[in-house]
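Input/output pair, single chain:
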Amino acid sequence: MRYFEQKRGNRLIAEITKQCEEKGEKSEVITFKKFDGKYQWFVDSRGSNDLSRIENIILDGIPTANLEALKAEFTCIHGRAPKTGTKTIKQPIELNNPLRS
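Output:
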């Protein structure tokens, strides 16, 4: 299933890029994948003026930060490495709905 989603996304990006070129507009793609484009999420997409003159920016993929960078930041802030593994935490919540009587 994932292959077909990627294929569909690539066709969509190609079509948008084609339409932009026909209008004479510049377009660039920011992608999540490490080596799949000119620009990458959280590396080239922030704090850069490279994209300041681009009329259309196509964002491809889910913007997810590098997990190792998040781990290093957590270690610096809290003075310890995050614990590995998963743990189920049950926490009671109170639901208030003013529309229901």
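The mean pLDDT is 79. Residues 2-78 form one domain.
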